[in-house]
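Progress against Task 2.4 (sequence-to-structure conversion) is shown through the following example record, which the project officer requested during the mid-term review.
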Amino acid sequence: METLIKVYYVILGIILSCNSPPGCLAQESICRTGWVYFDSSCYFFYTAHHVTWKHATMLCQTRNTYLVAIETAAENNFIHTHAKRLGGGYWLGGSDEFVEGQWEWASIGKPFEYTNWYPGAPDNQLHHQDCLMTKGIFHNGWWDDVDCNQVGKFICEEK
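Structure tokens generated for the chain above:
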């Protein structure tokens, strides 16, 4: 009976410390207030501001963070889940502004390794869609190339 009680308290301790499944390693305490933890990074979904891609990049930099760089399917699923819940389009840190067709995470200077393009994208419609956005309405967290002067919400990331 004593062993059963000890097991109960161990399990209770794990449950009480676990508010961010899966994995149940609660790490929100390492993030700033209002930020969300996922896989070694903290994210903030700016929903009050609708700004251009360059303005979003600058706003993240003023907070010593960068416009989100999605490097895995798991990270994309995390971003999509939150974007869908909050609604609207969100700027991501990707761009092919410097060399057309060579997409990179401008925020961290790395070419894309993982992608999740909307079918038919990137299409560079009207020859000036050089910035990356995900929209909560897209199934599967698809990405789209859009005009950098369009306005949208944005996501800052801090590692």
